[in-house]
């Protein structure tokens, strides 16, 4: 190959190499033309769409006929179709019940608070419902804002915008004084359900009913309610229901005491009958004192007794036996081991656990469910 040919070959090789490199680099350069320095900017996230709001509930299909008994046994509230008990608490100063409908993104809530400050008018009540009090009641939400407040009759009415996660909700609360306590009812619903929210709020507020059988009773006790036999009893919250079913005997244990509730097909016509019945309840029982009683309109007897075990240990007990409208004998029977006293001849303050059996009531008209 002569020198001219060799030189031409080199030139052709260089041109082809430049062309190949250019075909790779030029598209990369051209892709940045007109973009300035945007390739240095932080990528922006794609915005999430707002949560879809469910259709408002059909209020023509709602009623508050089903009733829910609060764990304290002190009040019931109506439960509209689609809602169910979700929160239920009691303390010495406050009772709280909540109903939830996750499909409708709606919550209904009732609070009954002790009126420790003796509030008697709406101005004082409105001052009581300050930012601190409200903030505690919204603790389960992402954020809240009060949008309006006014007095309507004897009630303080407050509207809110509420946030839970990415959901934006509206709420209204009404508070008033009744039975010496502070009542608050609240409804929460999506923004597109303002009319339904008002209906639900009025319904749950109007449905609150205190049980007269426990008027003036302390807030911080729990209730055992047999919805079939229709009797109930309140006990300390640390006591445990260990064995129970509707229509069958129930056992509640706490503070060393054992309390048994049940119903028997028997009628007692006299104190002698009551004495015979308690002594026949189980072996080792001997009656001490018997007295006729009328509790909440139900007649019957109280009987104190001793229970001796085979090894000679002594327990003292007290049974309340009431005749029900079902023509059966309803019995609440409490006993305490290692105690030798006549429990019909003691001061209740000296034996506070007796308050549980003393709270035994027959409630034949009560139709309610418990959580």
What would you note in describing this structure?
- The protein is an alpha+beta fold and 371 residues long.
- The protein has three domains: 36 residues; 156 residues, 3-Layer(aba) Sandwich (Protein Transport Mog1p, Chain A), CATH 3.40.1000; 141 residues, Mog1/PsbP, alpha/beta/alpha sandwich (Protein Transport Mog1p, Chain A, 3-Layer(aba) Sandwich), CATH 3.40.1000.
- Helices cover 19% and strands 40% of the residues.
- It has six helices and 20 strands.
- Strand 7 and strand 8 form a beta hairpin.
- The radius of gyration is 36 Å and the shape is elongated.
Helix content: 10-25%
Number of domains: 3
Largest sheet: 7 strands, antiparallel
Number of strands: 20
- Total of DSSP H or I helical runs spanning 4+ residues: 6
CATH architectural designation of the largest domain: 3-Layer(aba) Sandwich
How is the largest sheet built, in terms of strand order?
3-4-5-9-8-7-6
* Percentage of β-strand residues: 35-45%
């Amino acid at each position: 190959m002569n020198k001219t040919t060799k030189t031409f070959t080199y030139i052709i090789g260089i041109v082809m190499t430049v062309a190949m490199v250019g075909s790779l680099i030029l598209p990369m350069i051209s892709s940045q033309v007109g973009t300035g320095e945007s390739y240095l900017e932080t990528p922006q996230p794609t915005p999430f769409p707002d949560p879809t709001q469910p259709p408002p509930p059909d209020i023509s299909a709602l009623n508050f006929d089903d009733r829910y008994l609060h764990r304290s046994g002190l009040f019931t509230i109506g439960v509209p179709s689609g809602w169910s008990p979700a929160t239920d608490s009691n303390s010495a100063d406050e009772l709280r019940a909540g109903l939830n409908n996750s499909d409708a993104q709606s919550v209904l809530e009732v609070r009954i608070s002790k009126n420790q400050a003796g509030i008697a008018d709406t101005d004082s009540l409105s001052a009581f419902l300050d930012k601190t009090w409200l903030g505690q009641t919204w603790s389960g939400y992402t954020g809240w804002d009060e949008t309006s407040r006014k007095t309507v009759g004897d009630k303080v009415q407050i509207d809110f915008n509420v946030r839970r996660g990415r959901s934006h909700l509206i709420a209204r609360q009404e508070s008033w004084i009744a039975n010496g306590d502070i009542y608050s009812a609240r409804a929460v619903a999506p923004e597109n359900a303002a009319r339904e929210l008002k209906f639900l709020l009025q319904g749950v507020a109007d449905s609150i009913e205190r049980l007269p059988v426990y008027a003036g009773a302390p807030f911080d006790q729990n209730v055992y309610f047999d919805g079939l036999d229709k009797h109930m009893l309140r006990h300390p919250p640390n006591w445990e229901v260990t064995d129970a079913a509707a229509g069958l005997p129930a056992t509640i244990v706490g503070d060393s005491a054992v309390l048994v509730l049940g119903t028997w097909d028997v009628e007692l016509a006299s104190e002698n009958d009551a004495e015979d019945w308690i002594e026949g309840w189980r072996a080792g029982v001997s009656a001490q004192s018997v007295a006729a009683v009328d509790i909440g309109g139900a007649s019957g007897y109280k009987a104190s007794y001793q229970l001796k075990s085979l090894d000679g240990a002594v327990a003292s007990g007290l049974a309340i036996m009431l005749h029900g409208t079902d023509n059966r004998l309803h019995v609440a029977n409490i006993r305490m081991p290692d105690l030798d006293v006549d429990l019909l001849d003691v001061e209740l303050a000296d034996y506070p656990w007796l308050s549980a059996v003393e709270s035994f009531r027959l409630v034949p008209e009560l139709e309610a469910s418990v959580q």
